[in-house]
Amino acid sequence: MARMATTQKVVVSTIGAWLAGFLIFFPILWMVLASFKTELEAFAIPPSFLFFHWTTENYATVQERSDYLHHAMNSIIIAGGSTLIALLIAIPAAWSMAFSPTKRTKDILLWMLSTKMMPPVGVLVPIYLIYKTFGLLDSRIGLVFILCLGNLPIVIWMLFTYFKEIPRDILEAARMDGATIGRELVYVLTPMAIPGLASTMLLNLILAWNEAFWTLNLSTSYAAPLTTFIASYSSPEGLFWAKLSSASTLAIAPILVLGWFSQKQLVRGLTFGAVK
Amino acid sequence: MATRQTQLLARSLLTPAVALLFIWMIVPLALTLYFSTLHYSLLDPGSESFVGLENFRYFLTDPAFLASLQNTLVLVGSVLALTILLGIPLALLLDQPVVGRNIVRLMVIAPFFVMPTVSALVWKNLLMHPVSGLFAWIAKVFGLTPIDWFNDLPLFAVILIVSWQWLPFATLILLTALQSLDEEQKEAAEMDGASAVSTFIYITLPHLARPITVVILIETIFLLTVFAEIFVTTGGGPGLQTTNIAFLIYSQALIQFDVGSASAGGLVAVVIANIVAFFLVRIVGRNLEA
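The joint structure predicted for all components is written out below.
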């Protein structure tokens, strides 16, 4: 009897969970389907779910008409560049706070966290004017810089929580065995720090790739990453559903894959270690 | 000697990050503060003059401010309510033994990784279009009049889109918290004859109190400045119906070029965010000591 009840329970919860998952995922699925339709079919009522004329021409058109790859490259440069620079600044800082904490470490960490809570609109005006003055509007370097600063607190926090978990006894053991600082770094610490570094990098790439306040306000065409490029489809004359869908599918595909790998770290990174 | 050297090294490693963040926080904020006391229009350069608190008076008594403050509160409150009320049952469901749980989990999390401009445009057009959208078709199939979302219920439409983006976040955090719940405690309660409902109320829900607080605070910080979703769907309209504080400041700065008033608005936004941040920092800080 008890076994029956469990099987029944599994069946019910499985059906419920799949139904909920499907509903939540549906808008993405619908978008991917639309990207393989012709413009007419994408617009058609009643809509066709699977039995339409599958075509990949939208993907070709998006590239031809609007130089999709240029904007994808901008996204890669801006998200990648800002992540890399943020890591270079954050690694030494997180390292020092995790391994040589002082009385003020906790205050510094919380202060860093509080800088992340400043709403970007609060400083939109000065940043815009500074960028205008220095010719940084619609430049990749300007976006790299601002996204790097915006995400720096999260990067430091995540690295700090990972570094803190490296057992310090191991360091002492290595030192006892006569390892120099250099050897200690290469053979002991780096291998232990790599998983934390990788997941921090991943989460930051995702955040920077999807950032849509500064990119929309500070870039228009040349430096426009995919967020800004997709936004250009919002104008009424730019309303081509199939093309919007294929551009969007391409824009979110790489990040969806990265995101699925990093779901566990996501919780940790976005809650600043408050939920593990 | 060695420890002193280490301390010096540690400090010098920390300095670049602290200095950068300090400049990043102080310089723009000081400029915002300074601009907020000026009459300063980009359309009329060279005419800057000190006006004291005039911009604040103007911004705070502008009917658009009250409207956008109300929209901001409705938006934040509704999205919080939707994501948490749907997130709890969803997390409970995913915590059950489910065949193919990992795949379901991936489907549930996916919306969080979709860039805001994409989710907003896909919802606005493919789903919510009053004639050719999928929702309109579903309504017609059931013999209902399709809803013209962005004309009749613009703020609600934005709320739905933003909730869809943040539901995965709430679910994921609550699920993570559920998985750390002590199974033995639940089993013991069941042995004692506690019903599923009372187990949920007396054991599960108290355990979720902290993660729910964290979800509320973090979502609030991001939701206070929802921008891209409004920018690409409604542009704040019709009228002021979907203008929130963030969008109001944006339009004053970059559409009306009124730097002084936008800066005053920016400071108001900072103050509102700081009230929330105060509580979040306290919770995180408490956790840091444990």
